[in-house]
């Protein structure tokens, strides 16, 4: 009687994921530390411009710690980081951690809201499309779904944003197109951010749904004579979840990146608009801090999705190499 | 992908390339002419899309910008592919440790959004035409590194590579003749899609002011300059936005088209429409468990042909009767079973003069079954499938899957249903049923799962058990146990059995009556006892002979019959067995023999039945 217990492999899977997260975080830390050192020429000079007096450049070199040996700089950097000290912004002379703290919520709200929209709209539309395609009737509807979602997927979020601004802000003048004021100022940015990923998710759900519906255990479920809603929701959907969640996870990390563009279209007071201006102004400490935080969010999201998949799909832990 | 879409892809690519090459030569004048008096004009007049803040023609500027947008995207993708392939191929050359390290690094980079990578590199290089090219190349490289790794791994494990190695083919030749051709196609296709990704990232960066920088102009730069002028001339911003979308779409379409051309992707399967079918006649209650008259099942193939899986099948199963259906694979026996249970897929077309199960007429195709019918079938018909592992839902526990039937149809609470599930698992002689009920399917053996499947059928009161090759996927010793279990279950519950098998011996052990199917039709219907005294149909004789052979000499293959069953899409006149039949003569090849009585409870469809001297 073969009854292997699943517990140890799950534990190992978890351990591997945690290890991967830690290693990734370390790599991101190190890369963001190295960023300043990879800048060709003298970063202090580059940040101040060609005309800046030499002593100013020297003092900035000291501020960046560039006058000390590399290993010492690295250790100092790690030590500061452990204390939550991300340095001081060149342009505003304020601590980077404070600048980030002021802006992070705006970005998280935007990305979080967009994710909720993506999950609800994407899964609902995908399931509907699955049912339509599986029935074999309504071929026109099925084709329209494939075409429409294909275009939405291909639209980069900032292009969608421009289109939305043109339609609702400029032509119809219904909605605010810049800044974060009231709840209605969320509408266009969230829509611009969510439409592409939602369409992508819907396509995955449809493809997975059709694959799953052809599997044998669905026939077993049909042999139980369940209602159709129970068949789709209780038997087919959970088996699409692994793929769906994987995509949703990638989507969320791309949502975080997408906020950078969207925030710049809508003048959103978040991390994304800050990182762009910090790069153009060569405010290296701020750029470093923002890259670190944005990457950290992406890594944590990927980790959370892995855990979620493990919880939903008992096979995922076994399938791991 | 339709031919039209493929044509669109290539035509779009040709147009894009033409614009990229010609526009800067032909339109340099209007794109560069500064005319502040005519700044930000709306579309119209000499300017189809209006003018920008310096009075330059927007359309001309967008067209001219095509060169830089595409140039950078294509160059960056090429660089990214080269870099990625190099990194991806490294593991094959370096030691094991280093290979794993590279693999892990690539996995990490792939999970990272390209735009974030690009921002990081842009912060270092500071943008510009060359900087952006580098940025995008580096951001795309991980994708191609991973693709190369995957492909290389799959090629290395492939049989033809192993075969070539055995033949002593040298390393370089192996790489050139076997590995590269198999890897190049997918990489080329992905590269096309990569260009559209590069275009989007580039436009994004330029739009943010971190990519191409004015006075160089690409679509992103235009979009950047136009955004603040939305209220004066929306077309100014919409035109470069549209250009980005069109450019991106064209390259992904070209990727898809290339995949079809290179044969990397099957054309999408066609999901068949349905034709109206004859309604089933009304039933007579208290009669047979199964009553099928002139049942036909047709399944459309993706290529448009129809497989006539079941043709004109008429039979009954009396209460408590055990009927076996035998035949080679593809003879329609499984389809018959599924049709009787109302479980054919949505694409199958079912026609019948009469199709009743458990006294209820089945609606065509088993779909749209009303509540009453669903309950009748759900409680009184049990189905045991061939592949026990595939037939359980992989993400829920065994107990829950058994319990569901009782919850849905018998109205039990979940706890009671679970308790009943454990009892039923014990009934099918599973040791430690409580523990097994808490297991997931992949944690159990095939034999145990098949017992579980039978237990699932016993959750309510089955009057009919349909078992489709229930033992084929199991070990020989387990096979016998499962058959014995089915036999016992039928005996104890008084349920009828419809047992589908390719193995006449299995059917002879378990059943009272045998239906022999060939090419979608029942060719003989006889009591099991008559098998030994002599079947009337030549095909049954051959089947029987092969079983006897098997029994005496187990090393001989089962298929001892010369020839093959006819193509199920064809519709020849006459007896389908004629090309293989030793007794074929006269009208055999031209006229179809009907299934007619040849003895007591014995029917055969043959012009020259054995034992018939006429
Ligand atoms: S009808 Fe003719 S060909 Fe067909 S089985 Fe009988 S004898 Fe053979």
Keyphrases for this structure?
heterodimer; A: 321 residues; mainly alpha; MetI-like fold; disordered N terminus; B: 614 residues; alpha/beta; 8-stranded mixed beta sheet; 5-stranded antiparallel beta sheet; 20 helices; 51% helix; binds iron/sulfur cluster
Which helices and strands appear, and what pairs or packs with what?
The complex is a heterodimer of chains A (321) and B (614).
Chain A: H1 7-38, H2 43-48, H3 54-64, H4 70-82, H5 96-135, H6 139-154, H7 157-171, H8 184-213, H9 216-223, H10 228-265, H11 271-280, H12 284-312, H13 316-319
Helix pairs in contact in A: 1-12, 5-8, 5-10, 5-12, 6-8, 7-8, 7-10, 8-10, 10-11, 10-12, 11-12
Chain B: H1 3-26, H2 28-32, H3 58-93, H4 96-110, H5 114-125, H6 128-157, H7 159-166, H8 171-208, H9 219-227, H10 234-261, E1 290-300, E2 306-317, E3 322-326, H11 333-341, E4 349-351, E5 354-357, E6 360-361, H12 371-380, E7 381-384, H13 398-410, H14 414-427, H15 433-437, H16 446-457, E8 464-468, H17 476-493, E9 496-501, H18 504-510, E10 513-518, E11 521-527, H19 528-533, H20 538-552, E12 596-599, E13 602-604
Parallel strand pairs in B: 3-9, 3-10, 7-8, 8-9
Antiparallel strand pairs in B: 1-2, 1-4, 1-5, 5-6, 10-11, 11-13, 12-13
Helix pairs in contact in B: 1-3, 1-10, 3-4, 3-6, 3-8, 3-10, 4-6, 5-6, 6-8, 8-9, 8-10, 9-10, 13-14, 13-16, 14-16, 16-17
The complex binds iron/sulfur cluster (SF4).
Residues 537-538, 575, 577-578, 581, 583-584, 588, 593, 606-608 of chain B line the site of iron/sulfur cluster (SF4).
Average of per-residue pLDDT values of chain B: 77
Most extensive protein-chain contact, per-chain counts: A-B, 84 and 81 residues
- As a whole number of angstroms, the C-alpha radius of gyration of chain B is 34 Å
**Structural class, from helix and strand content of chain B?**
alpha/beta
> Whole-number radius of gyration of chain A?
24 Å
CATH architecture of the domain at 106-282 in chain A: Orthogonal Bundle
CATH top level assignment of the domain at 106-282 in chain A: Mainly Alpha
Q: List segments of chain B where confidence is low: pLDDT < 50 over at least 5 consecutive residues.
A: 265-286, 553-560
Q: How large a portion of the residues of chain B is in β-strands, by DSSP E?
A: 5-15%
Number of helices of chain A: 13
Low-confidence stretches of chain A: 1-7
**What kind of oligomer do you see?**
heterodimer
Ligand list: iron/sulfur cluster
End-to-end gap of chain B = 59 Å
* CATH fold-level assignment of the domain at 106-282 in chain A: MetI-like fold
What is the mean predicted local confidence, pLDDT of chain A?
Answer: 76
How many beta-strand segments of chain A?
Answer: 0
